[in-house]
Design goal:
The complex is a heterodimer of chains A (about 525) and B (about 180).
Chain A lengths: L18 H4 L4 E2 L5 E5 L9 E2 L6 E2 L4 E4 L8 E2 L4 E10 L7 E9 L19 H10 L12 H4 L9 E6 L8 H8 L1 H15 L4 E6 L3 H12 L33 E6 L8 H9 L14 E5 H12 L6 E7 L7 E6 L4 H7 L9 E4 L6 E2 L13 E5 L18 H5 L6 H9 L3 H6 L10 H5 L6 H61 L9
Parallel strand pairs in A: 1-14, 9-10, 9-12, 10-11, 13-17
Antiparallel strand pairs in A: 2-8, 3-5, 4-7, 5-6, 7-8, 13-14, 15-16, 15-17
Chain B lengths: L1 H23 L6 H9 L13 H10 L11 H12 L17 E5 L9 H5 L5 E2 L7 E2 L10 H4 L5 E5 L18
Antiparallel strand pairs in B: 1-4, 2-3
Helix pairs in contact in B: 2-3
The chains are: A alpha/beta (about 525), B mainly alpha (about 180).
Chain lengths: ~525, ~180
C-alpha cells in the first residue's frame, strides 16, 4: 500500500452522518405498483419509446432507446403492462415535466431470457463494450455517462483503471454497502474493465472511514475465486497496444490494489481522486483518459459484471434512503423507476422532521418538488432532510472578499471573482477566470460566511454562455442561408436578363435574315 | 551633411515600405462591418429600417444608424455592439418595437392556399411548398423574423412562442436582494 497520497487544493471536511444508514443491513425493496421511466437522458438527449401503451413487457425487455452514440437503452425492471406515455414531473432542476413511460407491474416478475458471456477472458473488448451498452449501463456515481462510451478511449494510452469507492458526500453509503455485501462482483467487474482497456493496473479507492468495505475487498481479493484456471500470463510478450489479445490479467486479482484515501470532500470527484492517487492533473477541458486514467464508480463495475457475466441489464441499483426525515434509514436494492414515495414508505415513512426531499447528497444533490418522481439510474441517495441538514435558505449578505472560497475551491478557481463577473453578466471575464472548470461541488457555498449561493450564480452563467453560443451558431447558419438565397436571386436575375437579351438578338437576327437589305420593321 | 542624407534615406525607405504594404497587405472590405454583422442576430427582419442585417451593420459602421435599433438582438445585442464599438450601451429604440420572446412561424395548413408569397418573403428559405400546394415552415431554419406574416393573403401564419423544454432550460440567476 502506498504510504502517501498527493493532495488537491482546498476541499472541506464535513459532518458525515453515514452511520445513519450504514449500520443497517442491505434490504431488497418489493416490486412497486408502478414503474416510471423518463425518456430524457443526460445532455438533453431523448430516447424513443419502443413499446406502446397497452403492450405487455417483461423484466429486462428494452422499452426505450435511440441510435445516438451517447444514448443507452432503458430496460423494464419488472413485468407488467405499459399504461401511459405521458408528461410527468421528472428529476430535473427545472421542475418541468418530461415524457415518461409508465408500467403497471403485475407482480409476477417474469423476465426475458438473457445472453451471457461466461468467459470474458476470451471475448474481444469490442464485444464486451457492446454488451455493456446493450445492458444499458451508465456511470452510477451520479453523472450517468454511458459506460461503453467512456471505455472507448480512442488512441490514448491508458495505464490505470481507477474504481471510485470514495463516497465523499455526507449521508450517502450505497457504494460502501455494495463493497461490504458483494465485493466479488466489483472485483470481477474490475477484471472485465481492465480487459477492455488493456491495462495491467487497477486501484480501487475507498475512504479512510470505510474500513469494513476495504476489509471485505481485501478478503474477496485473497479468497478470490478466479473466473478461469490461472494460466501463465502472456502479456509481457505482447507488443504494446495489443488490447484485444488478453493483456489484462483477469485470472487473479494480484494487480488490483485497494487504497484508503483521506476523507475530505470532494475526494470522490473524478479529477480530484485521480490527483490524489497518481498526482496527475487532468488538463483544462480534458478527460481523465488524457492522462492515461479511466475512472469508474464501483457500482458501475458491479453493473458491468452483471451485464457481461450474468447477462442482466441494469434494472436495479442500491439506493441509500436516509436523513433525519426517514423512520428507518437504510440501503435498499431498488428497481430503477420506483417512485420515491414507495421507497420511503418501505423505509418506514417520513418522520416529523422531514422538510426537504433531495436526490443525491446535501452538497450536490437535487431538491425534488414531490415524492411522486421516480428513481433513475443515477439516483444514489434519497435524502429526507430537516432544516439543519442542508443549511436551509439563509439570507445572502454582501461579499466581504474574505477569500475563504478560493481557499476551499478544489479546482484552484477564484470563486469571488467568478461571482462578480457572473453577477454582472460579464461572461467573457468569467470565462477568462475558467468558469467552465467549476465542478459545482459546493465547497465555496459551504464556507462562504455571507451565505452567497455561489454555485447557482456559476450554473446560471454557464447556462447563459451556452445559450449565447447556441444563438451565435443559429445566427451564423441563418447568415449562410440568407447569403445563399441572395446569391441565388442574383443568379436568377442575371439568367433572366441573359435569356431576354438572347431572345432579342435572335429576333433581330431573324428579322434581318428575312429581309436582307431592308431595315427591320419597327414593332 | 551625412546625417541629413541618412535621415532622407530612412524616410525614403519607410515611404517605400508603407507604399508596398498599402498595396500588398490591403484588407478587402471593411473589417468593422464584418465584426458588427457577426454580432447581429441575422434574422434579416428589417425592423431596424434597413433591408437586412448587413446593410444595418454598414450603416452603423458609417455612423448613420444608432446601435439600439435591433429588437431581435435585444438588450444583450445592444450591449455587445456597445462593447465592440467602445460606446455607451443604451435602451432599445422605442420606434423599432420592443424585445419579444422567441417565436417561430407556424402555418395553419388547413387554411393555406398555396400562393407562395410567404416563400418569396422568407429571407432564409425556411418555408417549403410550391404553387397551389400546401406550404409548411421548417422549424429548425425559421429565425422568427415575422416577414411572412403580413404577406399572407389568408392570414394563416401565426407566430408561436418557443416553449421551454428540459433541454433548453437553464439555471436562473439567484434572486438577489443585495444592493
Amino acid at each position: 500500500m502506498l504510504s502517501r497520497f498527493w493532495e488537491f487544493h482546498g476541499g472541506v471536511r464535513l459532518n458525515r452522518h453515514k452511520e445513519l444508514s450504514s449500520e443497517q443491513p442491505l434490504a431488497v425493496a418489493p416490486i412497486p405498483k408502478q414503474l416510471i421511466y423518463p425518456l430524457q437522458q443526460r445532455g438533453g438527449l431523448n430516447s424513443k419509446a419502443l413499446v406502446a401503451v397497452g403492450d405487455q413487457v417483461l423484466k429486462g425487455q428494452i422499452i426505450a432507446g435511440d441510435d445516438h452514440p451517447l444514448s443507452v437503452p432503458t430496460h423494464a425492471a419488472s413485468s407488467g403492462v405499459v399504461t401511459a406515455l405521458e408528461y410527468r414531473p421528472v428529476p430535473h432542476p427545472s421542475g418541468l415535466d418530461g415524457l415518461c413511460l409508465v408500467i403497471d407491474t403485475d407482480g409476477l416478475d417474469r423476465a426475458v431470457r438473457t445472453k451471457s458471456v461466461k468467459d470474458f477472458n476470451h471475448s474481444k473488448p469490442d464485444t464486451l463494450r457492446r454488451r455493456i451498452r446493450e445492458a444499458g449501463v451508465v456511470g452510477l456515481g451520479g453523472a450517468a455517462f454511458p459506460t461503453a462510451t467512456k471505455m472507448n478511449t480512442g488512441n490514448r494510452t491508458i495505464d490505470l483503471l481507477v474504481l471510485n469507492g470514495a463516497e465523499c458526500e455526507p449521508y450517502i453509503t450505497c457504494d460502501d454497502c455494495l463493497l461490504r455485501t458483494t465485493p466479488d462482483s466489483v472485483l470481477q467487474g474490475a477484471a472485465i474493465l481492465m480487459r477492455i482497456l488493456g491495462v495491467e493496473r487497477c486501484i480501487i479507492a475507498v475512504e479512510e472511514d470505510m474500513p469494513e468495505a476495504a476489509q471485505a475487498l481485501e478478503k474477496a481479493k485473497l479468497g478470490g475465486r478466479p473466473p478461469s484456471p490461472p494460466a501463465p500470463s502472456p502479456r509481457f510478450a505482447l507488443p504494446d497496444g495489443e488490447g484485444s489479445k488478453g493483456v489484462a490479467d483477469a485470472t487473479t486479482y494480484s494487480n488490483i490494489e485497494i487504497l484508503k484515501v483521506p476523507s475530505k470532500y470532494p475526494t470522490g470527484g473524478e479529477k480530484q481522486l485521480i490527483q490524489v492517487l497518481t498526482g496527475r492533473e487532468v488538463p483544462v477541458r480534458g478527460i481523465p483518459a488524457d492522462v492515461g486514467v479511466v475512472c469508474q464508480n464501483v457500482g458501475t463495475a458491479a453493473a458491468v459484471y452483471a451485464a457481461v457475466v450474468e447477462g442482466a441489464p441494469l434494472t436495479s441499483r442500491i439506493v441509500t434512503v436516509t436523513g433525519p426525515g426517514v423512520a428507518r434509514p437504510q440501503n435498499v436494492v431498488a428497481r430503477i423507476g420506483t417512485p420515491i414515495a414507495e421507497l420511503v414508505a418501505y423505509c418506514g415513512g417520513y418522520t416529523e422532521r422531514a422538510q426537504r426531499l433531495i436526490m443525491g447528497g446535501p452538497m450536490m444533490g437535487l431538491a425534488l418538488p414531490s415524492d411522486e418522481l421516480p428513481t433513475i439510474k443515477s439516483t444514489n441517495c434519497i435524502l429526507v432532510a430537516d432544516s439543519d441538514a442542508v443549511g436551509g435558505e439563509k439570507q445572502a449578505l454582501p461579499c466581504i472578499r474574505c477569500g475563504a472560497c478560493s481557499e476551499a475551491c478544489p479546482v484552484n478557481l477564484i470563486p469571488q471573482q467568478l461571482y462578480w463577473h457572473s453577477r454582472s453578466d460579464q461572461l467573457k471575464k468569467a470565462q477568462a477566470y475558467n468558469l467552465f472548470d467549476c465542478i459545482e461541488c459546493g465547497c465555496c457555498d459551504y464556507v462562504c460566511p455571507s451565505h452567497i449561493p455561489l454555485v447557482q450564480y456559476f450554473r446560471a452563467a454557464k447556462g447563459r454562455i451556452l445559450d449565447k453560443q447556441r444563438e451565435q451558431q443559429k445566427a451564423d447558419h441563418a447568415r449562410l442561408r440568407f447569403e445563399a438565397r441572395q446569391a441565388r436571386k442574383e443568379r436568377e436575375k442575371r439568367e433572366k436578363e441573359e435569356a431576354a437579351r438572347r431572345k432579342k438578338e435572335a429576333l433581330a437576327k431573324a428579322a434581318t435574315d428575312e429581309s436582307p437589305g431592308r431595315p427591320p420593321p419597327s414593332p | 551633411m551625412l546625417g541629413i542624407l541618412l535621415v532622407c534615406a530612412l524616410f525614403a525607405l519607410f515611404g517605400l515600405l508603407l507604399g508596398y504594404s498599402a498595396i500588398h497587405f490591403r484588407v478587402e472590405g471593411d473589417p468593422l462591418v464584418e465584426k458588427i454583422d457577426a454580432v447581429l442576430p441575422q434574422t434579416q427582419c428589417g425592423q431596424c429600417g434597413f433591408p437586412g442585417c448587413r446593410p444595418y451593420a454598414e450603416a452603423i459602421a458609417k455612423g448613420e444608424a444608432d446601435i439600439n435599433r435591433c429588437p431581435p438582438g435585444g438588450e444583450d445585442g445592444v450591449k455587445a455592439l456597445a462593447e465592440l464599438l467602445g460606446v455607451e450601451a443604451k435602451p432599445l429604440d422605442d420606434a423599432v418595437g420592443g424585445e419579444k420572446p422567441k417565436a417561430l412561424a407556424v402555418i395553419d395548413e388547413q387554411k393555406c392556399i398555396g400562393c407562395t408569397l410567404c416563400i418569396q418573403a422568407c429571407p432564409v428559405d425556411a418555408i417549403l411548398g410550391s404553387a397551389k400546394h400546401m406550404h409548411t415552415v421548417i422549424a429548425s431554419e425559421c429565425t422568427g423574423c415575422e416577414l411572412c406574416v403580413p404577406v399572407c393573403p389568408v392570414d394563416c401564419i401565426a407566430m408561436e412562442r418557443v416553449a421551454e423544454t428540459l433541454a433548453s432550460w437553464k439555471w436562473p440567476q439567484p434572486r438577489s436582494v443585495l444592493p
